[in-house]
Design goal:
The complex is a heterodimer of chains A (431) and B (185). Chain A folds into 2 domains: 36-266, Cytochrome Bc1 Complex, Chain C (Up-down Bundle), CATH 1.20.810.10; 286-408, plastocyanin oxidoreductase (Helix Hairpins, Orthogonal Bundle), CATH 1.10.287.980. Helices cover 61% and strands 4% of the residues of chain A. Chain A has helices spanning 13-21, 24-32, 46-65, 75-84, 89-116, 125-147, 152-166, 172-180, 187-218, 237-262, 292-298, 304-319, 321-324, 336-357, 380-405, 415-421; strands spanning 35-37, 234-236, 363-369, 375-379. In chain A, a hairpin with a 5-residue loop joins β3 and β4 (375-379). The two termini of chain A are 28 Å apart. The relative contact order of chain A is 0.12. Chain B is α+β, with helices and mostly antiparallel strands. Chain B has 2 domains: 2-42; 50-184, Rieske Iron-sulfur Protein, CATH 2.102.10.10. In chain B, 28% of the residues lie in helices and 23% in strands. Chain B has helices at residues 2-11, 15-42, 48-52, 85-92; strands at residues 56-59, 68-73, 76-82, 121-125, 136-137, 143-147, 152-155, 160-162, 174-176, 181-184. In chain B, the strands form 3 sheets. A 4-stranded antiparallel β-sheet of chain B has the order 5-6-7-8. Chain B is elongated. Chain B starts with a helix and ends with a strand. Classes of the chains: A mainly alpha (431), B alpha+beta (185). The interface between A and B is medium-sized, with 36 and 27 residues.
């Protein structure tokens, strides 16, 4: 799996026997000795954190499936039963539900890190694309899983999202009913959503295998984006990065545990404690927080199909990012102009998230009141349009143009020089 | 023995025949596999019992004036609105050509056995044509329905007037089986 010469030598008769037949111990050993750039910072620990999230979601998910009943008459009650009656269900169910949020939190940090440090540039285009694919399937899995508790938000979220397919010209309605297995979201829908929610994490696991393979073939990027040239530029993965990742995991788990133990419902929606009702739409439908920016993009145009195309485009554009960014310099540390635009992009993503949580016609920034005493100003609708335009402009205009016009700062010759250069005379070892 | 066989096959001049057999076998296998895909795709569609649970009867006289009956048909709410004279007048006075989905009020009603429409009763699928939420009655800028999800406004005829929904609320297939009873579906 790894692209570096193996230094593993089996010591014992048993390991020698094994090595000749199935060199799986060698694979693990090579993984541990994999030469990693010596300057990786804490933003690089999220890969390991994400692996932990996936494992945690699969284990808690399988346990929940042992108690959950995928039927519209029983689903809601069975989830409440897990929380109240099943031994340690109070712990395992929030671990899974909060875990989904933590998974998305980590994946967003991981993606933004890749964006900032140019981790998608040659030779890591496929690595990036596999990552985008994982993210896409994560979104599908998250959506399917949110339907299962069969609360009001589950039901109406499922109705709205499957409604996207109804917007496809000509075949839309047939396609939507084929997905639902009926005229509306019903038992057939719940059954298949459960089956697919169980399947997709294993597809993700397989893609993670490819992701790590591609990573070890191309080698890790690093904060200065310069390829390691000598042995001095790298450190063995273990113990250096296992320990660093381990520390980051501990901090991450503290946040995770805070939500699981003290705020298990903070990241969800109160309406999901009301059983699904096909006759009554909640007054204010919102998706889970991790979908809010895309929801805002969907609502930024008054046309149904155009809204969906924009939302799909917002994710599709990530897949072609390696060819949109024309700059040869990977890390934005050496791209002062691009870095500013990146920070604005980050702010715009948060603004989109905020817009997605609010009613479009409400006023985000009031300028005053009109004659009727109503607030006037910039509505969330207009604000989401501004942020949507910036989101797309960042990828489709700013990055392609900046690569050709921006003058990057001088880059250090090597990782070793960059690491030691700034710390001359310092007694403590460099980061 | 095998050597002689190999030699023979090498010298046989039947390449065209082999290509044909190769292609024919491949095509048969591909067609077989493709035909097996269909059941796997079609099983996702509506099952027979879902299709069978198709029609309901509604007694219109149970709906007082100015009130709305909401009932479930094929997993979706159906609205039966007993409209007030003011609502009917409002629905009929609209300039149809200016609507996003032009339809007169009469076009949205189904004639009874004597061929006349009764404008008092508006029957429609109570599902917003945007993303399928259930609109709230007696609300919105046009005194009809308002969808809380993404802000679509419908008038007293259930026609889309403002907001992201592309079309008017759907009229289900229904017929009068007596003066006051309709059969939906």
């Amino acid at each position: 799996m790894s692209g570096h010469p193996s230094t593993y030598e089996p010591k014992y008769a048993a390991t020698k026997w094994m090595d000749q037949r199935l060199p799986i111990i060698r694979m693990g050993a090579d993984f541990m000795t994999f030469p990693s750039p010596r300057n990786l910072n804490y933003w690089w620990t999220f890969g390991g954190i994400l692996a932990l999230c996936l494992v945690s979601q699969i284990i808690t998910g399988i346990i929940l499936a042992m108690h959950y009943v995928p039927h519209i008459d029983h689903a809601f009650d069975s989830v409440q039963r897990i929380k109240r009656d099943v031994p340690y269900g109070w712990l395992l169910q929030p671990m899974h539900a909060v875990g989904a949020s933590m998974f998305f939190l980590a994946v967003y940090v991981h993606m933004l890190r890749g964006l900032y440090y140019g981790s998608y540039k040659a030779p890591r285009e496929l690595l990036w694309i596999i990552g985008c694919l994982i993210y896409l399937i994560m979104m599908a899995t998250g959506f399917l899983g949110y339907t299962l508790p069969w609360g009001q938000m589950s039901f109406w979220g499922a109705t709205v999202i499957t409604g996207f397919f109804g917007a496809v010209p000509v075949v839309g309605e047939s396609l939507q009913q084929w997905l639902l297995g009926g005229y509306a979201v019903d038992n057939a829908t719940l059954n298949r959503f459960f089956a697919l929610h169980y399947l997709l994490p294993f597809v993700i696991a397989a893609l993670v295998g490819l992701h790590v393979w591609a990573l070890h073939h191309a080698g890790q990027n690093n904060p200065i984006g310069i390829t390691p040239k000598t042995k001095q530029d790298t450190l063995a993965f273990h113990p250096f990065y296992t320990v660093k990742d381990g520390f980051a995991v501990c901090v991450f788990l503290l946040i995770f545990a805070f939500f699981v133990f003290y705020q298990p419902d903070a990241l969800g929606h109160a309406d999901n404690y009301i059983r699904a009702d096909a006759m009554k739409t909640p007054p204010h439908i919102v998706p889970e927080w991790y979908f809010l920016p895309f929801y805002a993009i969907l609502r930024a145009v008054p046309d149904k199909l155009a809204g969906i195309l924009l939302m799909v485009g917002a994710i599709a554009v990530l897949f072609v990012l390696p060819w949109l960014d024309t700059s040869k310099v990977r890390s934005m540390r050496f791209r002062p102009v691009a870095r500013r635009f990146f920070y604005v992009f980050l702010v715009m993503c948060f603004i989109l998230g905020w817009c997605g949580a609010e009613t479009p016609d409400n006023i985000a920034f009031p300028f005053g009141t009109n004659d009727a005493g109503e607030k006037v100003g910039l509505s969330f609708y207009r604000l989401s349009q501004i942020a949507t335009i910036y989101y797309f402009a960042f990828f489709l205009i700013i990055l392609p143009v900046l690569g050709l016009t921006e003058r990057p700062k001088d880059r250090p010759e090597s990782i070793t020089k960059a690491v030691l250069g700034g710390h001359k005379g310092a007694a403590a070892p460099a980061e | 023995m095998s050597e002689t066989l190999n030699k023979e096959t090498e010298t046989v001049d039947d390449e065209g025949k082999r290509d044909f057999i190769f292609l024919a076998t491949g095509a048969a296998a591909a067609a077989g596999a493709a035909s097996l895909v269909w059941p796997f795709v079609a099983q996702m569609g509506k099952a027979a019992d879902t299709l069978a649970a198709g029609s309901i009867e509604i007694n219109l006289s149970n709906v007082p004036e100015g009130q709305q009956l909401k009932t479930l048909w094929r997993g979706k709410p159906v609205f039966v609105r007993h409209r007030t004279p003011a609502e009917i007048a409002e629905a009929e006075s609209v300039d149809v050509s200016a609507l996003p989905d032009p339809q007169t009020d009469d076009e949205r009603l189904v004639p009874n056995s004597s061929g006349k429409v009764n404008p008092k009763y508006l029957v429609m699928v109570g599902v917003c044509t945007h993303f399928g939420c259930v609109p709230v009655g007696e609300a919105g800028d046009f005194d009809g329905w308002y969808c809380p999800c993404h802000g679509s406004h419908y008038d007293t005829s259930g026609r889309i007037r403002k907001g992201p929904a592309p079309t008017n609320m759907a009229i289900p297939p229904y017929e009068f089986i007596s003066d006051n009873v309709i059969k939906v579906g």
